[in-house]
Write a structure and sequence with these properties.
Helices cover about 35% and strands about 25% of the residues. It is built from nine helices and eight strands. Helix 2 packs parallel to helix 3 and helix 6 crosses helix 9.
């Protein structure tokens, strides 16, 4: 990923600090589910845990509550998000906040766990990025994360495809693809979930993405003309209509990986 692309991602999420929590129903749900999957792990009496992509602190709060004796290294690419998370949790001994690019981690190499909720999908090279993170774990340490799967926004993709346009949304992995990618790191378990989320209309969906900082298209995407976008929105609104507006799939993958000793 070019330096310019990283800067654009940092800028997008920094600009979403004030609006993020109001649109984060999926992110809040995901944080709670991921925390539930790791809460019983035997990490020891005072584990060292790195969080990647803290955002405003939804998942951080879950980690702090479930691992009360942990030393938490709380990081995000966006310094503004780090400060937002710091304000949510407050200062406390054993909590360290830092702005960091998780694809080039600056951390100890004896971590007990690295955890992340809906952040690693922004990595430029998921395989290499996760591998570098896993190298910071002690043998037997845990890499746990949630990310989006291949069916995410399938209705929006279909509307674009049927009108002959390329959708700007990222292409995500299937469950089996993620399992194969994680195999070199260690023993992995990947669970999946599909949520149907309603929006008043397609424009509200796009505005929600911007409010979350997640509106950047995949690299190389050529934006639609205003006329083409209006046609896609109209087609999408008719195609995805439900009782409470339009329905969109959020495909969630939850991975828990134990680094080989």
């Amino acid at each position: 990923m070019t330096r310019g692309r990283k800067k654009a991602i940092r800028f997008a999420f920094s600009g979403a600090v004030a609006t993020y929590d109001g649109e984060a129903q999926v992110h809040r749900h995901t944080a709670e589910c991921l925390a539930g999957k790791i809460s019983g792990l035997p990490l020891g009496p005072s584990p060292m845990v790195l969080e990647v992509g803290c955002g405003t602190g939804l998942f951080t709060a879950e980690l702090a509550a479930r691992f009360a004796n942990a030393r938490l290294l709380i990081s995000d690419l966006s310094p503004a998000m780090v400060e937002s998370c710091r304000r949510r949790l407050g200062e406390k001994p054993g909590r360290f906040f830092l702005a960091m690019d998780a694809e080039a981690p600056v951390s100890p190499n004896n971590l007990d766990m690295i955890a992340s909720s809906l952040a690693v999908q922004w990595f430029s090279d998921l395989r290499s990025g996760l591998g570098r993170l896993a190298a910071c774990l002690r043998p037997g340490g845990v890499l746990a994360f949630a990310t989006f799967g291949a069916d995410t926004f399938r209705e929006w993709r279909k509307a674009n495809d049927e009108l002959g346009h390329s959708p700007g949304a990222y292409l995500y992995l299937r469950r089996d693809q993620l399992e194969r990618l994680l195999a070199p790191i260690g023993r992995a378990r990947v669970d999946e979930e599909r949520l149907q989320v309603s929006y008043p209309d397609g424009l509200a969906f796009l505005r929600s993405l911007k409010a979350l900082g997640g509106h950047l298209p995949h690299p190389g995407y050529l934006p639609l003309s205003p006329g083409a976008l209006r046609r896609v929105l109209g087609y999408f609104d008719r195609m995805a209509a439900g009782q409470d507006g339009v329905m969109l799939t959020h495909h969630l993958l939850y991975a828990v990986v134990f680094r080989e000793r």
